[in-house]
Amino acid sequence: MKIEVYFSHSFLNDQSEISKIKGQGSTASIDSTTATTVSQMYLDGWRLVHAIKTAQSAQLGSFNFLLIFEK
What we know:
It contains 1 helix and 5 strands, in the order βββαββ. By secondary structure, it is mainly beta.
């Protein structure tokens, strides 16, 4: 099983842009060259197994999520 972690600045639906997180802990960063959508991940055989909201705000622009996919 493969696991990939992605981040979304504003996860509203399956067409929202997501980008892969590279590294761990203090060296983790968002790789904007990996931008894709959940729809495309599904087409590539991945499935969304966890969506973790990272911001406290309920404002639409603050729907930051970590998205965990497995294949």
